[in-house]
Amino acid sequence: MAGTNTVRILDGNTFVVSEDTGDIEATPSEPTGLFSLDTRFLSKWVLTVNGERLNTLSYDDLQYYEARFFLVPGVATHYIDAKLSIIRERAVGGSFRETLTILNHDEKPVDLQIRMDAGSDFADLFQVKDEILNKKGEIYSEVDGDRLRLGYRRGNFKRETVISSSQPARYDQNGFAFSVHLEPNEQWNTAIDVQTFALGPGGRDLRMGLRAHGTERLALEQDLQEWIRNAPKVNSEHGQVSATYRRSLIDLAALRFSPVSLGGQTLPAAGLPWFMTMFGRDSILTSLQALPFAPSLSKTTLRILAGLQGTRFDDFRDEDPGRILHEMRYGETSAFEEQPHSPYYGTADATPLFVILLDEYEKWTGDVALVKELERECRAALKWVDDYADLVGNGYIWYERRNTDTGLENQCWKDSWDSLSYRDGRLPGYPRSTCELQGYAYDAKMRAARLAREVWDDPAYADQLEREAAQLKERFNRDWWVADGEYFALALDPDGRQLAVLSSNIGHLLWSGIVDEDRAAKIAEHLVGPRLFSGWGVRTLAEGEVRYNPIGYHNGTIWPFDNSFIAWGLRRYGFAEEAATIASGILDAATYFDGRLPEAFGGYPRELTKFPVEYPTACSPQAWSTGTPLLLLRTMLGLEPHEGHLSVDPRLPIGMGRIEVLDIPGRWGKVDAFARGRMDMHKLSA
Predict the structure, then answer these.
(1) Which InterPro entries is this protein grouped with (predicted)?
(2) Most buried by CB count within 10 Å: which residue of 47, 76, 503, 614?
């Protein structure tokens, strides 16, 4: 992962990660560079003046899509005597533009040689992530008149970076240069355009939504303002809550991207730098989190996932009929089937979650037309749950990869290799079945029953789904309950033995509604008890378990998105105070990350650390972490669609004071919600 002194700008799945000087000097293992469509189009971008590297005075992260760097020649000890200052301004919006401004502060003229070294390794993002840069095609660099063309070709797979400047430049295969004479107090500037081209079979240009350079920044600015203007307004006496909400809105805007097949419509990419693409699970859960604030994301997500729903049996892609994809990639390794992500279907949760999102979206928006449009896909998803996901034949969702070379071993949200274990720390065999998958299946059946009865005019199907859901709930509460711990097992192994460790997954069971009422209080007690709750949030694995590690990726860290759904589940079962406790901890943590919650952070006890400990390789921004404050706001205010109206039942932590959410969109038009913290709740730190 690039260091903390990196500067990142992005627009959908096009992004630039550089040093704080603006320079890029990528290595095979560092995600620095200009990336688009899962390919690095610039791996070298180094500015020198008279052969000297530059040093940073400061830099401004102006908007998610632009940054400005203030530089001087020489080392830090010479800053005060600098006679030149250099400003680099850059913006990304499908393509990349950088403006250089050089100012002469001396009382005498200067002659300058300004050079930009430029190059590209055209690394696939998987190659960067795996630290293996093994290019099988031809990399080329050529001067093409008044521009530099960098390229890579392998069969009909072709990627090019074309660089030009508004000022005359001398181009060579390694970059370009300018000779500049500046009188005292004179300045010089040039605009450098970097266009990326991705050509598929038959020479088809895969880029979508590129703007003309003259209108690019203006279009991005107008789009962002419209995005913010259309979202509800949040005001709070606890100022950090409003600031965190605004940060989340802006980051959601930044993460929107338009897949090649979508014709300009957008859905959320999962996270920077590794996951700037479509993920079934991540896009669905982020859309659920954002529903009261940005319902358009749900509609786009549902349509694109429906359009790419599995139709056949394909072992390489782990595809089945009715299965919702896990991940879609556009890079070289996918194009040549060295990776299965074109698309890859190896996830066990996206399929029932697809049905859940469709129902929740209709409850909020009243968009019956979309429910009718996606009836076939919804039925196919439910058929997958019953016919293809039950690998053992006991009525549960199981998973086991069929692509044993490059497929995912763990196909639940905790998808790292060691995330599932017995109490003694051993890992189970395959197939595997995690508890939250059964909750999602139960919820999907109950929600689809409503759609069948109210929209599809199929009451017999509705009755069938409700019977199946009731049977699943009864079976689950019998087979998964850990009697000596009074919680549900994390998973079952193929022989039906429990992985009887205490984990955050039990909170998702409350969200789904699969937990029997008489067991819910014990689950709530565990979730805010000292083994799972750190004070900042709920740990993925409880303290005291053999594999517990406060900085273990899925074995003790705190995931903000996980906590947001846990809090929502607690509210579903009436545990408002416990939900507020979790919301309080996560929103407190957000203030230490400048309102931008990372993918995960350390599970150390709060009394041990004055601030949440960063996880070293966490993605940021990440979509479902960005959506977390939105779902927590919904949960604390008790915003729920009910019989065509919006129900508001606020329960806020003390210390938050008055909070208002204005212009909440839905089938009811736009309504406002107001609340004030109660004295019997946990305090939210200022």
Answers:
(1) 6-hairpin_glycosidase_sf, 6hp_glycosidase-like_sf, GDE_N_bis, MGH1-like_GH
(2) 503
